[in-house]
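Retro notes
What went well: the complex prediction finally ran end to end.
Inputs used:
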Amino acid sequence: MDAFPFDINSAWWLAKAGVLILLLLYLAFALIVISQVKLMTKTIKTGYETHLITASYVHLLVVILIILTSLVLL
Amino acid sequence: MQDIFNSKNQESDKKTFKFKSHNPAPPNTHQPKEHKPHHFRKHSPRKTYSPLAAFFHYPRGVSFINEDPEEVIVLMLRRHPITNVAWVVTALFMLILPSFFTSFSLFVSLPLGYQVIIILIWYLITTAFVFEEFLSWFFNVNIITDERILDVDFVNLIYREMTDAKIDQIQDVTVQIGGAVRTFFNYGDVIIQTAAQVPRIRFEAVPRPDDVARVLRELILEEEQEKLEGRVR
């Protein structure tokens, strides 16, 4: 009987799945941030709504790029 | 009318201004003159329109949800910028931390792809932290209009709480400035007791709290004058 039932490849696959799940959770968070910024800018208008909403979308874009990068690198 | 922003009075650490609705300010019967609303507008020596300011006197281009068309924003307040120091320092620490990752043998033993992704995830978390803290500071505001006071709080990601009370419902205003840092940077809490459904509204860590209390006092007197003259909206 093996002392360690998983081989090293299985361990790396698990690590890769863990990283991807973490990034997908972060993707959900980035989407919530967009909703949050929209709610905030709808509540108080200070003249900087466009900048903040753009920043939240750039944040989402960066998360998507990192997810794609992780699919390539891992 | 005195210049409310140039008062030389030295304020104590805690002051309470009481307003009694049954004892309005006596109208000036000797020299009737045209009522000029918001007389303190022209006296303010420090008007700032920086988006990162914390004390806006008659802010330009600012509006809020459910604002009446005739309503005028007299003051918009945020927490004093010095209150951001803690999270800014934390963010700087988080920014430089990845340069120490190579000191950990576990990190070095990982394949290069994993190292890169871990660092990218770390910077994502740092970005989220900075963005959330900034948004929290930027949008948690206190607003004083010529008709009411509002406390806007975003408690978590998508939960908003807006508390308001009419100016004529204000019963008591307390200014609290405690501690060396607050005294040095002249910021503190303004606690407003009201006869509204929410009995207490707290403006936390706002700059120049004595000026805020004076503005409120002027607005209350003005509101009472409007009631006497039958000009209530």
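What we learned: Chain B has five helices and ten strands.
What to try next: split runs per interface for comparison.
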